[in-house]
Amino acid sequence: MESAKYVVTDSAGTQEETTIAGTPCFTIGKGTARPETILEGTNKIIGYDLNKISFINKRKKIRPEGWDNKVSIRIAHSLERILINNVNEVTTT
User: Fold this and answer.
1) In the β-sheet with 43-47, what is the strand arrangement from edge to edge?
2) What is the pLDDT of residues 9-59, one digit of tens each?
3) How far is CA 12 from CA 41, 44, 93, in A?
4) What is the pTM of this model?
């Protein structure tokens, strides 16, 4: 995707990938499951009219908050805190 001039899709996963790659993305349909790609300016919803494709200002590689390949670590830490709290509650009651 990094070498593409732009991508036209209806896939939320593709919208994520183009955001990371810095490739302009145009989403077909009425909305997106990835609104952060719209807010970051890497994606534009064009409905069903391909004539609405226009180049987004410039290619920019963006990593929206939380898209840092550390999600599994954050989940593990959260689960660990939950389990520790539950164990503490059980032992103190």
Assistant:
1) 7-9, 25-28, 43-47
2) 999 999 999 998 888 999 999 999 999 999 888 899 999 988 887 755 556
3) 15, 12, 46
4) 0.62
